[in-house]
Design brief:
Length: 274
């Protein structure tokens, strides 16, 4: 393993393969949770399901006990105006809610990190569109990454796509990040900005890309629990995330169950998975 550009961790091919194991577990856990979301379910029930699945498949939850104050759960469960880092509890999901589920797992010392936003039953048309725009911007961001390019090529692609779709708020205070032997590492991956800036994208660099988009303001508040981030205007928010890398063959989405092959090919991007 080598470290370049102010502490950025560059993995070998074998280490990226280990990250794929952790990433696939995260992707499978999120698919399980997506199927479990329905009116009447509590966020704690989703958390319990996630922890059991991760541990039963040889993983350890990345989030549980993380940072200070220690995060108390396996997933972040952020409902409606909660953008990120919501703490699971006795809140009951109701028809028309949206829930952003962020999940991380460690397998053999390597991390995977991904997130989805899921509608609870039927939701309003503008909310459905918010989810579509946010998820599509994630894929457009990853599709913009090339070996020899720069990290903000991803940022620029995300912002350009979201801005073209309408009047949305793009969070600036929270970003994507490098990932590997730790969950949060250098470099930061903003969701806005000019292309051609930041560290060079090289083989062995793994990034967690995570656009956070709202129906209103980009500004946020932190609640008294010191974790939950909410929109200042209480507008609804969406959050999608994947861990990915770029090989000499193309992009590889480590937390997508299929490695991202189908969606990348639809975007005209070579698939770089093994």
């Amino acid at each position: 393993m080598a470290f370049r550009d102010r502490g950025i961790e560059i993995k070998t091919a074998e280490q990226i393969d280990l990250m794929r194991v952790a990433g696939r577990l995260v992707g499978e856990t999120l698919e399980l949770l997506r199927a479990a979301v329905r009116p009447g379910v509590t966020t704690l029930e989703l958390d319990t399901l996630a922890e059991a699945h991760i541990r039963d498949h040889g993983g350890v939850p990345s989030f549980k006990g993380y940072s200070h104050p220690p995060f108390p759960a396996t997933i972040c469960a952020s409902v409606n105006e909660e953008v990120v880092h919501g703490i699971p509890g006795d809140r009951v999901l109701v028809e028309g809610d949206v829930i952003s589920i962020d999940c991380g797992a460690i397998v053999e010392g390597w991390h995977g990190d991904a997130a989805v936003t899921v509608p609870v039953g039927e939701v309003a048309a503008d909310v459905t569109e918010l989810l579509r725009v946010t998820e599509e911007s994630l894929w457009r961001g990853m599709a913009a990454a090339r070996l020899g390019g720069r990290v903000t090529d991803i940022s620029h692609a995300i912002e350009t796509y979201v801005r073209a779709q309408g009047r949305y708020g793009i969070l600036e205070d929270y970003t994507g990040h490098g990932i590997g032997t730790e969950m949060h590492m250098s470099p930061n991956v903003p969701n806005y900005g000019r292309r051609g800036r930041g560290p060079t994208i090289v083989e062995g660099l793994a990034l967690a890309v995570e656009p956070m988009v709202t129906l209103g303001s980009k500004h946020t508040d932190l609640l008294e629990d010191e974790w939950t981030v909410v929109t200042v205007d209480r507008s609804l928010a969406a959050h999608f995330e994947h861990t990915f890398t770029v090989t000499d063959r193309g992009a590889w989405v480590l937390t997508a169950v299929d490695g991202g092959e189908k969606r990348l090919r639809e975007l005209g991007v070579p698939f770089g998975g093994r």
